[in-house]
Amino acid sequence: MAQESQELDPQKNEVIRLERESVIPVLKPRLIMALANLIEHSSDRAEFLKLSKRVEYTIRAWYLLQFEDLMQLYSLLDPVHGAQKLEQQKLTSEEIDVLEQNFLTYLFQVMEKSNFKIVTSDEIEVAHSGQYLLNLPISVDESKLDKTLLKKYFEKHHHDNLPDFSDKYVIFRRGIGIDRTTDYFVMEKVDMLIGRFWAYLLRVTRLEKVFSRKSKPNKKDSKGNEMIREGTGDDFYVERIRLENMQLSSRNLLGKTLIQEPTFDRIIVVYRRASTKSKTERGIFVKHFKNIPMADMEIVLPEKKNPGLTPMDWVKFLVSAVVGLVAVFSSLEMPSADWWVIFAVLSTVIGYIVKTYFTFQQNLAQYQNLITQSMYDKQLDSGKGTLLHLCDDVIQQEVKEVILSFFILMEQGKATRQDLDHWCEELIKEEFGEECDFDVDDAVGKLEKLGIVSRDSIGRYQCVGLKRANEIIGTTTEELVLKARQGNLTT
């Protein structure tokens, strides 16, 4: 963890526990070449590189039909041109409903294979428990979103701990990163100081209970582990650094300040707009974003409402006005009214109201800037482009898992499933300095399907030799095409 440029209150630091994911965070070419360089004999190295290509070609062929079905279905449900194609097909409403559910089934399978996970209600609560750059309450206009498509899917495909909005839109996430911003944050610090002064006044006037919300206990996952500050050995921790937790000092207030927030490396949002009386919506939106701060996750939500002053802001306005008027009239009724006290009270009340308004205007400008940034900088793709990216992701991950596990068995000999899992994770950490939760079950399943590993009488896995593995897989169509291009195909 990088050293912060300001002092933080150690009692208020926020540490978020995050689960390691089954993603090998190393590019496939780099992984294969690094493993090949660990092989001593050049002939074995050549056989290993040939095996890597044949494994990729074979796995790509396995998924070809499924991916083609996925893309064909989406061509009918594309929000841009899908309606025209559906009209040409002359399908009934019931038939289109079946196609929609088939598409979602394929899509969720590809998401799972690509190691995307549905954001749970616990993760949503943890994300919303802090603020980063977005300081406005953002809500979705639910009247503009369809509520039947996803509801029907989840009725047939049960998922635990779904958020409340899962019948309207689904958020998938993969990968964790860190976003850091260093700036003077002048207005934010002024807002923080006024907020602390406001909290002090509430405590003094004993009105704190009116505004404070009851604190909720930390949500726990199915294993009983707290989402914050607790975890297992397979988890890792990211610290939130916020202005609200900053210690008051001239150095912190006048100098640049670092704030930090964990990010979702990739986010995919799936939803459909609501139908109108004149038009039945069938298009399904699939949008792909990158590097979204957890606390600012609202910027990827569909059909957002224009933000405005919150009910709490209006309550503060009214309470401030009432408190100010009561204080003024009480001072005027005294035999010797202190005009300086009256002036101080009125200045405080008016200043707080003006501060709330201008803070809202600043936050609104910041919100518009973040929305623009999310559209141009953070949105990777949408629709068909996202699906193609997902399909390639699946193949890349599967190839890396198979090649890595075969290499370990080739080097170590026989291994139990647990040993294979541990050795693969250790190799990734030692050679590349990365950590992941290796999906050994999926890797072993693919190796057995390829026919290049077997199990002995006590359940340990062992692989065949490199040359034999290449013979078992055989020459692939892609290799024949490459030979034909080079003019080396013999007849």
UniProtKB/TrEMBL annotation:
Residue spans crossing the bilayer: 314-332, 338-358
Alphabetically ordered keywords of this record: Membrane, Transmembrane, Transmembrane helix
Pfam families associated with the record: DUF3754
Domain of life: Eukaryota
Stated name of the protein: Aminopeptidase
Native organism: Vicia faba
